[in-house]
Amino acid sequence: MNIFIGELMGTLVLVLLGDGVVANVLLAKSKGENSGWIVISAGWGFAVAMAVYVAGWASGGHINPAVTVGLAAVGEIPMTQVPVYVVGQFLGALLGAVLVWLAYLPHWEPTEDAAAKLAVFCTAPAIRHTGGNFICETIGTAMLLIGVLGISNVNNGIGSGFGPYAVGILVFSIGLSLGGPTGYAINPARDLAPRIAHALLPISGKGDSDWGYAWIPVVGPLVGCVIGALLYELLFSRLTPLAG
């Protein structure tokens, strides 16, 4: 129950604040309209930090199936717990997306761009290139896992109170550095569950939900998380901290 509730509420907060900042920047007549990619990247970084603070003590604050699978791949959590984490994450992401829709209810109709409406909920590539988009999501998520494992490494001494803030900085950095090609989903729940919400919600002029692309922000992160976690484990597990 700790895992399920923690991940549900943590991922709800993540998507509410993360998709919320995208809505603020992209939807017509919002006070943050056209404030740009830096605001979106910062908003997602802060969203991650707040979500991990909310859920970390209860479930570890994975808020991302890729983090859960990556940690399971290196034995940080039992494989038997993965389904509980993932169900909580997907349900939380779906509820968070619905709350964003409600929070910005008057702004959907005056927004003419269907792609902007979809972008509030999920990612899309700047240049549609299946191989390149997949590689970008894989690299970004591998970097996420390397960073998360580094932050949580006891030898760094920052895993407790400052840890969630450090993870938020990590996600902000990935957005600034690697987010340009695909919008950096790096989280299957964050992308797929809100995409389902977009398909189901009564949003005026919303267009389709781009299901042809939808597998990339799911499969890419799942591949990247295992690569990143195993690489970190391979390189650092036998090292000893420097004296002094």
Global shape: globular
Task: State the secondary-structure class.
Answer: mainly alpha
Task: List unreliable stretches of 5+ residues.
Answer: none
Radius of gyration: 17 Å
Question: How many separate helices?
Answer: 9
CATH topology: Glycerol uptake facilitator protein
Strand content: under 5%
- Sheet with most strands: none
Number of E strands: 0
Q: Level of helix content?
A: 55-70%
Mean pLDDT: 95
The named CATH superfamily: Glycerol uptake facilitator protein
User: Can you tell me the CATH class?
Assistant: Mainly Alpha
Number of domains: 1
Q: Give the helices and strands as they follow along the chain.
A: HHHHHHHHH
Distance between the termini: 42 Å
Architecture, according to CATH? Up-down Bundle
Structure report:
The chain is an all-alpha fold and 244 residues long. The protein has one domain (2-236): Glycerol uptake facilitator protein (Up-down Bundle), CATH 1.20.1080.10. 66% of the residues lie in helices and 0% in strands. The protein contains 9 helices and no strands. Helix 6 runs antiparallel to helix 7 and helix 6 (130-152) packs across helix 9. The longest helix has 25 residues, at 2-26. It is globular, with a radius of gyration of 17 Å.
